Amino acid sequence: MNLSDPKDLASLLEAFLLASGKPMSVERMAELFDEIERPTPSLLRKALEVLDKSCKGRAFELKEVASGYRLQVRERFSPWVGRLWEERPQRYSRALLETLVLIAYRQPITRGEIEDIRGVAVNSQIVKTLLEREWVRVVGHRDVPGRPAMFATTKQFLDHFNLKNLDELPPLAVLREMEPGPQLVDVEEAPVPAALQARADLEGEPETPREQTSFRSLLAELDSMETGLKTDFDDLRGETDPEEGQSTPEEDRRDY
């Protein structure tokens, strides 16, 4: 095999991607070669271009996402390919989807800020689910009393939704046209955490709840926030492990 020939190299990269089963960066591909035979990054990219062209007219495509390149079945075949798996795809509640939208378009954002926009409390189970799926992470803490955690999306979020970077997020106008149907509203929410229930019991009669913001209104409010999205969080203090996003009762009191 002539590793200096982009066509031969493209076949080898195809084998790498098929065997890997997950996205691979150009740097990771280069590490798989001995130093004496290692192709240059520019040659690897030329080979990837050859591989991309060879996928034309095939059932799969070469896709670049946040973590690198991967070979994947084209989206138009998903209704049939999905039948290979017996279990039904997981459904998510409207509340979880709205929370994820807010984090994606307004990051970094705190739980309290999400609640201010949505008009209702964020169930702790929603935050836990997003952290466990590694779609969001804690990138720091807001420098205000209580120092609430700030959430942002991850590479896994971009990979899952077939995005290379945050600039590829669809315009909010597109999301507005895809407003979730009524069936999402009926998805059963997780139980209220014991700490929140205990607080409610102690407070006696609850206050009149604020009207929940509709998904359409939420997107309209985000229109004014869409520009200047922060993507680099290295300047934020208190970099923490995602598990720290699971709040304790004491943190709950501070965040609200």
TrEMBL record:
* Record-linked InterPro entries: ScpB_csome_segregation (IPR005234), WH-like_DNA-bd_sf (IPR036388), WH_DNA-bd_sf (IPR036390)
Q: Which UniProt keywords apply?
A: Cell cycle, Cell division, Chromosome partition, Cytoplasm
- Looking at the record's lineage, which domain of life comes first? Bacteria
Gene3D superfamilies per UniProt: Winged helix-like DNA-binding domain superfamily/Winged helix DNA-binding domain
An example of a Gene Ontology BP annotation on this entry? cell division
Q: Where is the composition biased (Basic and acidic residues)?
A: 229-240
Report residue spans for region: Disordered.
226-256
Name the chain's protein: Condensin subunit ScpB
